[in-house]
Predict the 3D structure of the following.
Amino acid sequence: MHQYADDIQVNVCTTVDDAASAVNRFAMCLADIEAWLRASRLRLNLTKTQVMWLGSSQQLAKLDITHVRVLSSCLRVQDAARDLGVVINSQLSLSAHVAAVCRSGYYQLRQLRPAVRSLSEDASKIYVQAFVSCRLDYCNSLFFSISDGLMSRLQSVENATARLQVTGTRRCARTT
């Protein structure tokens, strides 16, 4: 079990053949956590509880457990989950996280484009850093050994960010 503030992670290691037993151990562990929370007048929020299998694509293909009964609910096994701002998928490939960062970066660039055109160079750099670059920088140590394809997707957001800053600076220079 790992705990961070109000976030609790329970990990159960198992083989594919012993997956049903692992699900039972997991359910018992969550029942204990729920009892511990109840004793402290807290509640386990099952709507925010996620279950995910981690492993290679070959091992995950052998699993046929798609739902896990936990306390009074039946939870569907997820392919990806967010953990402290990082999207983790079942194969730990970071492809889901890179997709989320790119989606968010491009969205912010579209929102900033009109504003950057009317701002000074320094102000546009601050806006771009606050809304786009920080997303690329968050947990960037995880990108150390990602594939070239994923890295190029992140680089394209960085390039679009640089183009926006240059375009905004040129427009400001022409108007002054």
About this structure: The mean pLDDT is 87.
